């Protein structure tokens, strides 16, 4: 892997400025660590290490799913309970079905209950505003800013775009699942995760609030954008620091060493099995596979395998059936906005042929 990373890093212009590939076995021993690049877009910047702090973006979702399973294990709620009884904003939510001839939104309250299973599998009806023209029109009509990168629950308080369980759309459902954890535990999500996940594993740099770490500025990996000439230029954080709310869908920071350590296991095997079990009803699974092959979904296509071999677990994509020269049946994975990726350490990662 060192050779592969170096080959791509040394291309002109550089395709990336920071890369880290780490892998642990089931006993928590490091079996691979390949690091390349600098923490800044400047090639003269400090070198990336396993302890450099990255914004992991949507890799946050798998940690939130684990937090959810902890409260489920404690019998505080089940995956199929009505979350509206816990979080008032989720009680009988509105579904946006269109607009009348005057441009007024047409909304109706759903009679279906909204559950943690819906929220964690992206079948709740929530979607990100950037992925829905109708939600953008709804927000404009009401004078609302529903850009989730504001880092607030208020920014993700808006109608569903379909009835819970009827379809699949990527969105802030996992953020709301994190809010359920907060209400049930009486703690902010970051505090709950630290006490129940990061603390026991001694993950000291995995946090929603990296600005509180004394050496954050020295270890922080910049986010960079590619300019028209192919060069990289630094950009500001996507979520504000400090973040107003601990959104469990995408505002966590971590290091390669710590996130990989998290992946090899923090909860009872049966809970891991539930997270990694294909969850979608057949009609919704077919719909998901149709969606990811549409032109408008190209921005997300890199997160999935090809063909019709995708299902979804609790906040993770699952490959169902071997993909030639690709992932093996049962592979669990997901990625984030800043090209962060994981493939589950519990399962076979790549095809048997490869």
TrEMBL record:
Gene Ontology molecular function terms on file: hydrolase activity
Residue stretches making up the Beta-lactamase-related domain: 23-342
Key words of the record: Hydrolase
Record-linked PANTHER family: (LOVD), PUTATIVE (AFU_ORTHOLOGUE AFUA_5G00920)-RELATED (PTHR43283:SF17), BETA-LACTAMASE-RELATED (PTHR43283)
Family label: Belongs to the class-A beta-lactamase family.
Protein name: Beta-lactamase family protein
Organism: Aspergillus novofumigatus (strain IBT 16806)
């Amino acid at each position: 892997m060192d050779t592969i990373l170096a080959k791509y890093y040394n291309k002109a212009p550089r395709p990336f400025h920071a890369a880290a590939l780490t892998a642990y076995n089931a006993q928590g021993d490091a079996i691979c660590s390949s690091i390349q690049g600098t923490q800044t877009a400047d090639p003269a910047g400090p070198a990336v290490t396993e302890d450099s702090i990255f914004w992991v973006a949507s890799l946050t979702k798998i940690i939130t799913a684990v937090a959810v399973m902890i409260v489920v294990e404690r019998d505080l709620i089940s995956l199929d309970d009505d979350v509206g009884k816990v979080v008032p904003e989720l009680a009988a939510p509105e579904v946006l079905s269109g607009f009348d001839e005057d441009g007024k939104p047409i909304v109706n309250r759903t009679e279906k209950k909204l559950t943690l299973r819906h929220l964690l599998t992206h079948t709740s009806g929530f979607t990100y505003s950037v992925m829905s023209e109708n939600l953008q029109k709804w927000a404009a009509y009401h004078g609302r800013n529903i850009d989730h990168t504001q880092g607030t629950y208020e920014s993700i308080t808006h109608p569903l775009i379909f009835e819970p369980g009827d379809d699949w759309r990527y969105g802030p459902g996992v953020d709301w699942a994190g809010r359920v954890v907060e209400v049930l535990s009486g703690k902010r999500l970051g505090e709950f995760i630290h006490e129940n996940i990061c603390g026991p594993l001694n993950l000291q740099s995995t946090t929603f609030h990296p600005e509180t770490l004394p050496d954050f500025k020295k270890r922080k990996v910049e986010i960079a954008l590619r300019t028209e000439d192919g060069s990289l230029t630094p950009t500001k954080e996507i979520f504000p620091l400090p973040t107003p709310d601990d959104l469990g869908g995408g505002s966590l920071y971590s290091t390669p060493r710590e996130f990989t350590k998290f992946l090899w296991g923090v909860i009872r095997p049966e809970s891991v099995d539930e997270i990694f079990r294909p969850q979608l009803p057949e009609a919704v699974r077919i719909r998901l596979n149709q969606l990811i092959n549409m032109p408008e979904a190209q921005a997300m296509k890199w997160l999935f395998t090809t063909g019709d071999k995708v299902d979804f677990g609790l906040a993770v994509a699952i490959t169902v059936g071997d993909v030639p020269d690709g992932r093996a049946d049962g592979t669990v994975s997901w990625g984030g906005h800043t090209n962060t990726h994981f493939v589950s350490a519990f399962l076979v990662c790549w095809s048997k042929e490869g």
